[in-house]
Every structure is written in structure tokens, then in C-alpha cells.
Amino acid sequence: MDPRTLIVSRIDLHLRRQLGTNVDSYRALTDSRYMRDVLLVCDAMTGTELPLLARQFRVAGTRMAHAAQSAPGHDTGPPQDWAADTSGFGVSQPATVAAADRANRRGQQILVRTEPLVLQLSCA
Which helix (H) or strand (E) element contains residue 122? Predict the structure, then answer.
């Protein structure tokens, strides 16, 4: 859940008490200009909890932005040696000498062809 949702609901509660106006929670989370205006009103309400809530909302938004930038996709885990030689559905290119060296370091053996395999088909 977006941590800003709770903060927006608290801002809404305080603004209803103080000014008799409400905050559209969905719009506050999706429309940056609308929320900027709401936060400016909160900043102007000194002597209440609203300036603190506005600051908390800004910090939560900054943290979410940093989290989104640091994790653009899902974690793919460590790189796989076999991924260079295959598509995952079988061998997609012939094994290279470098692949054989990597396999030997792991204690495995693989066959390496240095010349291309030519198949001769005859139709009789």
C-alpha cells in the first residue's frame, strides 16, 4: 500500500475540521499540481499538525521515487553462464572454446566443434 494514502486521509480529516473542505484522495495521489496546492495550504496552517503532515507526505513521495528508480524491474538473480550459449529452450548457437573453458572450471566436459557441421541430405 502507498504510505502516502494514510497521510492524505489524515490531511483530509484536519482540513475538514479546520476549513470545512475535503481532499480528493485519488486525485491527491495522481495529480501532482492538485497535491502541491493541498500541501501549500497545509504549510500555511501553522500551529496545527498540517505542516508536519505535508512534510511527511513529501518525504514519502521522495522515498517512493528513489525506490522506483533503484528497482526498475524484477530481480533476475545472478548471471548464468549457460545464458550466453542458449535461449533457454536448447542450444541456439554452437559452444565456443570460452564456454568449454568455463565448463572445465566447473568440472564439466562439453564437446566443442571448431568447424561448422555440414549436413548432406539426399532426396531419393
Answer: none
